[in-house]
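We emphasize that the prediction below concerns an isolated chain of 246 residues; any contacts that depend on oligomerization or on bound cofactors are therefore not represented. The input was used exactly as deposited, without trimming of termini.
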Amino acid sequence: RPRRSRAAPAPYGPLLRDELRALTGIGSAVCATGAVMALGVAAAGLWALPVLCVPLLLTQLSYRRFAAVRTTYRQTIASLARSTEIAGYTPHGHARRVAELCTAVGREMGLSGPELTVLEYAALMHDIGQLSLVDPVPDGATALLPAAEQRRIALLGGAVVRQTGVDAKVAVVVERQADPYREQPLSARIVRAVNAYDDLSGESLSGPLGALEQLRLGTGHDYQPQVVESLARVLARGGLTPVPPG
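Result of the prediction step, given as a token string:
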């Protein structure tokens, strides 16, 4: 099944906000450290410099260890997400495509920081409930299943996520992805719409334009209109599909 791989540019506003937040914290820490070192040197002479540098070095080592743990954590989640592909339940690359599009749509809708991380992890693991099925869903396309079956798979997936020790917020998004959108948190609304788009846009089904049109037809109950239009804008910016007026 051919798929689009080029990521859409992220909106400037949310990225700028994230950078400013990060710079505020780093800038405050640098200024405070400089002030403390100046006072220490004034009071104790140059011997204060190595004494004050030791905590900074320990902090740097701790940060590197934290970054390594976080990288390993994300790789573990990605490996769990691929288990449905390896078992033949979902098409190759489906979880990755959904995660990339969900992240772009989340930024488009103003999510950032921890909210965006939860969304990405939930998107990677959104199909893990299919591992509990005796018979695989054709092409892994859960969007084509009856609503009750979609909810059953979502609840099974949430239970699996909770057993892995992943953040409970991720499990909530996974298990609520098949609810009517008015009852869902925003991240679950995004996962549901993007997963349906990827399910429906395969060559053997509707194609990109047909998938987007089906999502728009389902905005009365299944998909939040704002999410669908944000998805359309992301796809258009990335040159992935033309977007007729909604």
